[in-house]
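Subject: for your reference before the review

Hello V.,

The reviewers asked for a structural picture of the protein, and I figured it would be easier to keep everything in one thread rather than splitting it across files. Below is the amino acid sequence we used in the manuscript, unchanged from the supplementary table.
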Amino acid sequence: MRNPGPQKVDQRNHWRNNPHGQSLVAEIEAMEKKIGNRLYRGLLKRVTRTWSPQQMRESSVLEQLLAQMQGAERGVARSVGGSG
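And here is what came back from the structure prediction:
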């Protein structure tokens, strides 16, 4: 069986081609201060397999990443303010 080679990215789904994608990247970058550098980098690497949200081409993956980071933010808020 032949190796199909690198997959082409559908340019319509590229985050730079729409304002929503650009705001996604900004929201994701803002999450670093909210959840901390280690958690931010860990989620970024695990979900997108990149070190920067700008390296990810697909806006659907950025949406998944933001959802994961928002969940982490809620967990951090619970652990900091919840037991006492």
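For the response letter, the relevant points are probably these. Residues 25 and 42 are 16 Å apart (CA to CA). The mean pLDDT is 83.

Happy to draft the paragraph if you're swamped.

O.
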